[in-house]
Every structure is written in C-alpha cells, then in structure tokens.
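We both want to read discrete structure tokens more fluently, so let's practise on a single case. Would you supply a protein for us yourself, any chain you care to pick? Would you write everything just below, so we can both look at the same thing?
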Amino acid sequence: MRRLLTALLFVAAVSGFARFAAAQEVSASAPAATAAEPAKPPAAQPATPAAAPEAPAVQQEILVGIYILDIGKLDISTGSFTVDFYLDLKSKDPKNQIAEESAALEFMNGRGTFDKIEDKGNEKFYRVLATLNTPIDLRRFPFDAQKMQIILENKTNGLEKVKYIPLTAESGMDRAIVFPGWAIKGWEATSAEHEYPVYKTPEGKNEVYSQYLFSVDIARIAVNSFLKTFLPVLFLMLIVMASFILDPDKVTTRLGAISSALVASAMFHVSISGQIPPVGYLTFADKFMVLTYLILLVSFCLSLAIYLMQGKPEKQARALKLHHFTEGMVFAGMPVLYVALFLFVR
C-alpha cells in the first residue's frame, strides 16, 4: 500500500513539472513572434468620394421650320416690313421633350407676337406676326436686290444648351404671295452663331447663342425699272443727237436743245433721288445721270465753240471741221458710253 501511494505521488510530480516546462516555453516564444511580425496597421476606412463637378448641360438640338404666308410692303427708307408665317419647332430626337426655355424665341431684328397653335411636347407650332427690319443696299438702284431677313434667337439659353437647325423640308413660301414692284427670287434657311463679347459666362468666355436665319431674296423688275427711270432721259438724249444734224449756221438751235435737255435731266434726277433715302454712295441711277450731265456739258461746249467760230470768216472752215467731228463723236460715242455703263458698271 505504501509503495502504491509513493508511485502515485511520483507520477503526479512528473506531470506537474512537464506542464510547468511547457508553459515556460510558450511564454518565451511569444515575444519572438511579436518581434518577427510587426503589428498590422489598423484597417483603412473607406474614403468618402469627393463631390464631382457638375456636368455641363446637354445641348438640345431643335429643328426649325418657317412657312411664309404673307409679306407686307418693304419700306426702302427704313428697311422695315411685316411678315406673317407659321413657325414649327421639333426636337431632333423625338424622345426628348422641348423645354419651355428652349422654345422661348425672340426676334433680333424687330418685334413680333407668337400665338401657340399646337404643343405635342417634342413639337411646338406657332402662328407669328412680326414687324422686322433688314439692311438695305441701294448701290444698284433701280436694279437693286434685297434680302428680307427673319432672325430668331433664344432669350436665355446659350449655344451650350440649345442649338437651332434649319428644317428645310417643312419650310417655304405660299404661292399666293404677291409683292408689288418686286420679283421674289427664292428663299434660304441657315443657322449661325452669335457671339456677345461684352457678356461673359461663369468660366470667363464670351456668351454665344444659336441663331436661325430665314431670308427671302427679292429684286426689282428690270423692265419696269428701265422704262420708268431711264427711258425719259434717253429720249431727251435722242433729241440732242438729232440737233447735231443741223448745219453749223443753225448751231443756236442746237444750243437751245442742249440747254433744255440739261435742265430737264436735272429735274428728273431730283425726282429719281426722291424715291430713295439719302445715302452716302452713288447709286447706279446717279452714275447714269452723271454720265448724261458729262455728255451734255461736252456737247454744249463744242457747240458754243462752233457758234463763236461762225462769227469770224477766217475760222468758218475750222468751224466746219469741228462740226463734222462733233457729229461723229455724238452719233458713235454716246451709244457706246451708255452701253458700256449698263454692261460693266452695273
């Protein structure tokens, strides 16, 4: 019995010593592991995304069509006229709706009223009556041609937000339009960019707006203009030419005809000038009258020289030669000068 107890005590002592030794080994190895493997940094927190800059507004493209119903009389002195037309606005992408600010149009060359007839969301239809102005160029008067322009632009949205594109398939002019005194040559629809150097965007750039331009080309009726403006003067010049057939001893009659033609031409020139406003350049009618004055002045001077020579017997032969020279100059030179004026100056 004593031996059994002694064996049990020995086994318990050996077991306790083994456990103690194992614990010592674990505690000794722990610092080494810590030294070999550095501590991991704390898990990084997900960064909060920075606020992205606001994307620029998407440009909306709108198709524009104009159908002219009537055009009022063009006032040459001011360049003003009235026009009545249909205005059709369509979104280029049928899925996009036309915003009210994108359809807010204004005239850049006058004033007008917009009467909305139909609104389908992606299409808006208007009846428009406007009083507009157009530049007038009278350098070729009375054979001048003019452009009657309709210029539309958005009120608030620049080119980066809305752009207007001509819709030529649904544009045109009514066949019943009659424009007295003028011949309608055709029409043209275009778009352009209108830049405002004095107005700046938030980025410091010049503001640019999309413009829609519809222009009607008109020209005076050439035959009517010729008959009313130049034919009376040409008949006067024919009478002057006929006076050169007279003999040198009847040169006083020629002087009277030239003087009367000069006065009549001056009065007729004043009448022609009253049809147009004062301008800072010579019109074709002015150039025609200047040439007429020059011909009459030269004819008067030559006829006066013949008259003075007729009173001196020693110079009568010289007067006869000058008479024949003036005849050839007038009958050959005058038509050539007028034809050259109409062919090359106009």
Summary: The helical segments are 2-36, 222-229, 231-243, 251-273, 284-310, 316-345.
